[in-house]
């Protein structure tokens, strides 16, 4: 008797769970504005692909996919994202006219072509499955090792040369070469005096933060005797971020204190009369 | 199950990777799209290996991973070097060789 519900195998369940996740995460990679979000979506794609490998009797690739791709490569991507600036947004201005439509058309056309090609050469029959091939040497890893160190041993050796070259290349490229000569102490001193002569810049050290103000945190600008802010007492970066404390807020406690003192003085003088 | 599902999924992921590479201006995201394409081909390799019942497809996927790892190391080093020189990771800003 035919069962009413077609038999659903575990690998099919894995496919129908993981395939939509993979596609959604890939779309997230494509559409996210921030590089960090793209990297996290990429991690989703890789983990779901790893599950698909496991569902197809390839446990070695499942582990390698998670350890090498999600663990190593993606973390490297995240490191570089951190290095280059987490909040750098992509500009959405088209630099080449029609570029976006043309690219979308190319991608869509290629996808349609590939899917049509798969449909055209439809593979018939049930898959052979890897169970027999895996059992040949007593397991998936053993069978892969037998192939890797037998039939493909020269490819394996060549890949070691590739990895060493890549490591040396990365060291060379990432090694920071000085674009300008480092200024010596004499040159810095000469530059300071020159700035003093030509632009009247004070040659001494910059003012401390928080002088005459009631705190000395780095975001508190120094107050000059006339009550204005010494702009050089706060780092330019903090000024740009807008975390510098406002001058009126700084002056307020002093002003209230003076007002209280003056009021008391006035009261005492009033008593005398 | 039939390998067709895996092949269609692989084609979709590959097309999304192409779109990401062509559309995104951030060099890191373009690079991640390349990784997505490599992953898509890996999925096709594993699907075919499972269909034909031999392990050569898994070996091919393994070597793709090796090459991808080497490529990521060098590519990210290049992106960092370009960023250090030009203060930008956008592919539009690296135009020294533009005619």
Automatic annotation (TrEMBL), chain A:
Cell compartment(s), UniProt: Cell membrane
Alphabetically sorted, this entry's keywords are: Cell membrane, Membrane, NAD, Oxidoreductase, Quinone, Transmembrane, Transmembrane helix
GO molecular function ontology, one term from the record: quinone binding
GO CC annotation, single: plasma membrane
One short Pfam name that applies is Oxidored_q3
Specify the domain of life of the species encoding this protein. Bacteria
The catalysed reaction is: a quinone + NADH + 5 H(+)(in) = a quinol + NAD(+) + 4 H(+)(out)
Report how it sits in the membrane.
Multi-pass membrane protein
Which top EC class applies here? translocase
- Does the keyword section mention rRNA processing? no
User: What EC number(s) is this enzyme filed under?
Assistant: 7.1.1.-
- Family of this protein: Belongs to the complex I subunit 6 family.
Which NCBIfam families does the UniProt entry name for this protein? PRK06638.1-5 (NF005165)
Give the protein's function. Answer: NDH-1 shuttles electrons from NADH, via FMN and iron-sulfur (Fe-S) centers, to quinones in the respiratory chain. Couples the redox reaction to proton translocation (for every two electrons transferred, four hydrogen ions are translocated across the cytoplasmic membrane), and thus conserves the redox energy in a proton gradient.
Q: What is this protein called?
A: NADH-quinone oxidoreductase subunit J
Q: Which species is this UniProt entry from?
A: Tessaracoccus flavescens
From TrEMBL, chain B:
Chief localisation class: membrane
* Catalytic function, reaction form: a quinone + NADH + 5 H(+)(in) = a quinol + NAD(+) + 4 H(+)(out)
Q: What class of enzyme is it?
A: translocase
Subcellular location per the Swiss-Prot or TrEMBL entry:
Cell membrane; Membrane
Q: Name one GO cellular component term.
A: plasma membrane
PANTHER family membership? NADH DEHYDROGENASE SUBUNIT 4L-RELATED, NADH-UBIQUINONE OXIDOREDUCTASE SUBUNIT ND4L
Protein name according to UniProt: NADH-quinone oxidoreductase subunit K
Species of provenance = Tessaracoccus flavescens
Organism lineage: Bacteria, Bacillati, Actinomycetota, Actinomycetes, Propionibacteriales
Which gene holds the coding sequence for this protein? nuoK
């Amino acid at each position: 008797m035919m069962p009413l519900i077609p038999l659903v195998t575990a690998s099919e369940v894995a496919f129908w769970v993981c395939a939509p996740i993979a596609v959604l995460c890939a779309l997230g990679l494509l559409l996210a504005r921030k590089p960090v979000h793209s990297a996290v979506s990429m991690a989703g794609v890789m983990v779901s692909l790893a599950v698909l490998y496991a569902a197809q009797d390839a446990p070695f690739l499942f582990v390698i996919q998670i350890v090498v791709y999600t663990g190593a490569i993606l973390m490297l991507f995240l490191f570089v994202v951190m290095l280059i600036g987490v909040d750098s947004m992509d500009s959405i201005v088209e630099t080449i006219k029609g570029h976006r439509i043309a690219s979308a058309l190319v991608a869509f056309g290629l996808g349609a072509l590939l899917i049509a090609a798969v449909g055209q050469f439809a593979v018939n029959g049930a898959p052979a499955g890897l169970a027999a091939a895996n059992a040949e040497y007593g397991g998936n890893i053993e069978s892969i090792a037998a192939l890797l160190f037998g039939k493909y041993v020269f490819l394996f050796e060549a890949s070691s040369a590739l990895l060493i070259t890549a490591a040396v290349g990365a060291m060379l490229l990432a090694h920071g070469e000085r674009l300008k000569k480092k200024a010596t102490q004499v040159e810095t001193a000469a530059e300071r005096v020159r700035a003093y002569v030509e632009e009247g810049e004070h040659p001494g050290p910059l003012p401390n933060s928080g002088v005459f103000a009631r705190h000395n945190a780095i975001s508190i600008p120094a107050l000059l005797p006339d009550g204005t802010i010494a702009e050089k007492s706060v780092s330019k970066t903090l000024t740009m971020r807008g975390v510098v404390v406002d001058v009126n807020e700084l002056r307020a406690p002093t002003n209230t204190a003076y007002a209280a003192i003056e009021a008391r003085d006035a009261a005492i003088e009033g008593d005398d009369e | 199950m039939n390998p067709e599902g895996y092949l269609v999924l692989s084609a979709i992921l590959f097309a999304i990777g192409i779109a990401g590479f062509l559309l995104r201006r951030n060099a890191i995201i373009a690079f991640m799209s390349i990784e997505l394409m490599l992953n898509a081909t890996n999925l096709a390799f594993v699907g075919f290996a499972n269909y034909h019942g031999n392990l050569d497809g898994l070996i091919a996927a393994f070597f793709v991973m090796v090459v991808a790892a080497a490529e990521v190391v060098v590519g990210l080093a290049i992106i960092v070097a370009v960023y250090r020189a030009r203060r930008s990771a956008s592919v539009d800003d690296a135009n020294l060789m533009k005619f």
